[in-house]
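Aim 2, interim progress: modelling of the 5,10-Methenyltetrahydrofolate-bound target.
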Amino acid sequence: MTTVLDGKKTADALMTDLKNTVTTLKAQGVTPALAVILVGDDPASAIYVRNKHRRAESLGIRSLQIQLPKTTTQAELLGRIADLNADSAIDGILVQLPLPAGIDEQAVIQSISPEKDVDGFHPINVGRLWTNLPGVVASTPYGIMALLAYYQIDVSGMNAVIVGRSNIVGRPMAALLLNHDATVTMTHSRTKALAEKTRAADLLVVATGRPEMITADMVKPGAIVIDVGMDRNAAGKLVGDVDYAGVAPVAGAITPVPGGVGPMTIASLMIQTVAIAKRRVHEQQ
Ligand SMILES: Nc1nc(=O)c2c([nH]1)NC[C@@H]1CN(c3ccc(C(=O)N[C@@H](CCC(=O)O)C(=O)O)cc3)C=[N+]21
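Predicted structure of the complex, ligand included:
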């Protein structure tokens, strides 16, 4: 029997615990606060930002949505970030990616205070992660580790294969798995004989943005398959990077799309926002 790794159910369970933490923090005079900046009017980004806002509100986290027009200049955006960096009531700052053309994404990421960089994209946090030091970790890989932990899957010694080398998923995923004693192989669009590599995986994490590219013949029977994709197929249906119908019967465990990695990403953002806010309790006293 294939285990469906239910990200929605797991996120809900983790959020019940987190809500209690938020209540305790508020009683100590600290209201966790997350600022999300959205530049322009990309419809997909608007949906994610709305989901984050809803989740924050339901937990009692203060959620600031800062919507800026697509004509916003880089200098204006950096100015808004500087204000949020200086505001001691703000714990986490997230600038929704992608940004409109003409704005230098790295300049924006690097302008966020590393302590408030709740996305974990700042090079300081990336360096901390690869050095196995405490810091903020990118939400999607953090959420995948939390999902595996919830299902009591120990990755130590596993052959983990990652397909996709992005800064927001593939690379931080590799670092986290390595920190948890997996043997990690990174693959990407230039990898030769990809199926040979993926077939060696005990744990396969796919984040390519190519709809349903991982087919049953690329998966070892019994493997754990994590699908980070959020794509539309030719029929306009929301699908992942994994051919779910074909792969699920072969896999030992698999995440669905939707209801897998996506809800865990948002949960992770909330968990790390609250973790940053916790530090303020000590600063106050
Ligand atoms: N600075 C930044 N940080 C991010 O974390 C970030 C970003 N930019 N840009 C875009 C991606 C994408 N992302 C998702 C979050 C939640 C779902 C999610 O909740 N998905 C649900 C529902 C999806 C649906 O029904 O449309 C699910 O998979 O079940 C998906 C995708 C965060 N991202």
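Residues 261-284 form the longest helix (24 residues). The two ends are 53 Å apart (CA to CA).
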